[in-house]
Amino acid sequence: xxxxxxxxxxxxxxxxxxxxxxxxxxxxxxxxxxxxxxxxxxxxxxxxxxxxxxxxxxxxxxxxxxxxxxxxxxxxxxxxxxxxxxxxxxxxxxxxxxxxxxxxxxxxxxxxxxxxxxxxxxxxxxxxxxxxxxxxxxxxxxxxxxxxxxxxxxx
Length: 155
Hints:
The protein is mainly β. The termini are far apart. Strand 2 and strand 3 form a beta hairpin. It is 15% helix and 51% strand. An eight-stranded antiparallel beta barrel has the order 1-2-3-4-5-6-7-8.
């Protein structure tokens, strides 16, 4: 053997490389799952994505929700909306977050130039997205029942 040191160095390098590759290839990297959103995700002002839509005879639109109170899984605050018949509704809305589902309810008063004040209630189960909430709702006003789906964007 002419160069035993060279063969030895090559063997050591080959073993080190193989061990490094083996160690790298044999590691399993578990996918990280995103943490479930908390009520912090709800804080801010949420407004209807489409504000220039005239509500149908049985719907509401032009929603704004501004949560001002929160816990780890719930948020509550003021809301306003325009409902069928030109009713302008204001009140409070609260929701409980479980995963990306928000079970919510709202109550308040509505008025028009012809109606001084009447009660309004809305409920639904919404889906929280990264920057929007899809809000199916049903409810009652003094002008009758309302229902629909509204998309709120975080502002």
